[in-house]
Known about the structure:
324 residues, alpha/beta, six-stranded mixed β-sheet, binds adenosine-5'-diphosphate, binds magnesium ion
Amino acid sequence: MSPDTTASQLCVSLRNLSKTFYNNGRSLTALLEVDLDVRPGEFVAIIGPSGCGKSTLLRLVGGLLSPSQGRVLIRGRSPQDAQKEKEVGFVFQDPGLLPWRTLLGNVALPLEVNRRARRSDPADAMPLGKHAGRRGTASHQAPSPRDLLALVGLAEFEGYYPWQLSGGMQQRAALARSLAFGPSLLLMDEPFGSLDELTREAMRYELLRLLQGAGGEGHPIRHGGSPTAWEPWPGRAGYERTVLFVTHSIPEAVLLADRVVVLSSRPGRVVADLAIDLPRPRPPSLEEERDFQSYTSRLRHLLREQAPEPHALEARTPGHAVHG
Ligand SMILES: Nc1ncnc2c1ncn2[C@@H]1O[C@H](COP(=O)(O)OP(=O)(O)O)[C@@H](O)[C@H]1O
Ligand SMILES: [Mg+2]
């Protein structure tokens, strides 16, 4: 990153970011003096030992928590301003779908809430006409909930209730819901963490497809250039899609990311920032290649230096999930 790159040119800029929680007279520092820049269009994965502050970091970026020290900027503005503009989408480990609503009803929920908010307090909700659409329309046409479900391959299931669907399908619906306003920044906190291994692997490739284009082949993500012609993830004019992705799976991080940021054990500090220089599109066969495996083993080493029990990173800790 050149030194004259200003915060407003970056999608996310974290400076000297620390977070200390105070509970019952005790303090716990979750995150310490984190500096991190994410350029527009980048996919950055964050890995680190359990409890090192990964979710805290994501919640700070999303404006769900405020920093104890330092600052968070999203395109040069506060997370709260970015939230107001509906620029940020969240996907958590728990899909968090409402059981009494159909899939379509769940995906439509953010838009309904926004419409209601506009009626009661117009200053608090995003006027959807504010952003020019990318497909040549004068005003921002939010994708319809049906379009979003089709995007994640769930068009036929719009009338189903969450409990009638597999975990993977529920998580795809949660992803569709997070795209309701065409966010330019997607924050994903172990989104596939509660899925079985096979579904989880399939979901990685689903996400790559969503980021790369129809079929996942021939539509590489462009970095710093103009947006791709076919846009599977409905975005906004002049915005590139950027992802901050927390995972405890090293292969997942390497497969998906342009950079993998490694945090130390608590309090989380950035101990490595590794560029993943693998070509896109990334087919499943890539995982067998030497370059891929050398990245995963490098990251494994880095993590071992952080965690007393390296295997704890690969195993999911039951009940461990600080969401939101
Ligand atoms: N709201 C909170 N109040 C108090 N402590 C918290 C809160 N949220 C997280 N923590 C603590 O901060 C540390 C980091 O948590 P978290 O960011 O969830 O870790 P990770 O996502 O890396 O597993 C943990 O020790 C956790 O218990
Ligand atoms: Mg977490």
